[in-house]
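re: that chain from earlier
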Amino acid sequence: MAGNNIDQLLAEGNLAEAFNQYADFLQKCEQERQALAQNQGRYAFVENQVNAALIGNEANIERNRIRLSFQNQLDIFRQNVLAAYFDIANKKAIFEGFDNRDKIIHEILDLRLRPKRYLRQDQLVEGGSSIVYRIQNVDTQRHAVAMVLKTPELSDEAKQEIKQLTDLRHRNVIKLLDHELNSYPYFIITEYVHGPTLPQAIEKTGPRPVAQAVDWLYQLAEALDYLRHKRILHTNMRPSKVFIDDEWQIMISPFDLHRVTTGEQSFNRYMDLCRYGSPELLRNDGKSLSLDEMCASDQYSLGLLAFKIMTSEDLYQGSTVYEILESRKKFNKPDYRRAQFKRLPKDSFDLKINASKSLVGIIQQLLQEDPKDRFQDLHQLLRALHPFTRADLPKTSLARQSYRRCLAVNKNLIHDFYAKFRQQLPHVATHFTLLGQQRQSAMLQMAVDVLLDLDTKSAFLFELASNRAHEGYTESDFALFLDVLIETLANNDRFWSEEIAAEWQIIRENALNILKTRIPPL
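^ sequence. v structure.
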């Protein structure tokens, strides 16, 4: 709109065009009157209702809605009209008006959360479709998430789709706890996952052991199968949307807010689609396919996630869309394809029941270009994975086998460990807020995973110990940490033996030797 600048036209002597642009500007000002009259009418109605004692506390909520609407009108007028027609010396100040949006949203959100017994704590992230806040229930002290939708309008169809999610009940699907869909700003409340995203977990611990990769792949497939049977369609199967909770279980969100709100695709989302979408989903530009088509598409994404979990790397690599798409083309070449599958670790499973395919064979089938060459459906995939979830891994270390047995028999294993650790080292407890204590379980799982693969993951241990949360911990603090961990495992493993104890002692000594380069002595 540079050509609309009236000051510039006058300076150039183009008087006729300056007149035209000014007339244009005044016409746009007249158009603003209608929006202003609507807000004035809404405000007058609220005040009349208050004076007549027909409404009470709701008046504050409605005033804030009107205030937000008027603030948006002013911001848009400043940016799209005023700044287009006139030379504004301090344009930065004009655009800073958008900061008021957050302030107003916070005020409205706080008012509407109060009757639900929640308090807003802090903003976690802002995406293309929503602004995400951590909130806390004042009675139970449990944390939750409030996702404020960034769309000014929500269709009845979208509202019904969101309400449908309140009935979902699956261990690996994030639950919708409440929602406000009657007026802007719309928001939904979900459970809070006390743990990292899948990329964060892999970044801190490296590729996952095959047994855990199988468990996570099975949990992902089962959660997706459940959603599809509930007729839930979404296209969010990418690492950043997969969470690991405090019991080291996979959690996925059933919400595809991009689809039910703006429908507009951000560049980062498109990059994820190129890296983790199926060929057919990519051809459809990320838009939802039919239910049967999405079930087949999910399988391809699961295969890509499995590769990421087991190798810690993306199968389709590149820092640009072009490079990622070129990588996808290379994967269709037989020699390159075989070389990539050889990168997957091979463990010999002691299967209790016969398996139709090897684990690598399952991943190969998931990553077939033609959907017809994949599994018939997600349920058939689950049947193929099931033998591996029940298998023994005789070649894994005694320490790892012991740890897996302990997790299986005691779901409070991590809680028991930390209760004893804090009891023996009271000053540690002061380092953790209530939220920090709830996150400890996921942190311990990551630490133990690194300890069990210390030969190849010493750098990961050093990084975990160097975390700011562990500043000030001494060598004796870490030694006690390891001693309490070994004692907790010994108390929970009915097959505990001298051989297992000896293996854990070797891990303990090796870990402390690595940590001596980071931590101060006693």
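The CA atoms of residues 476 and 487 lie 16 Å apart.
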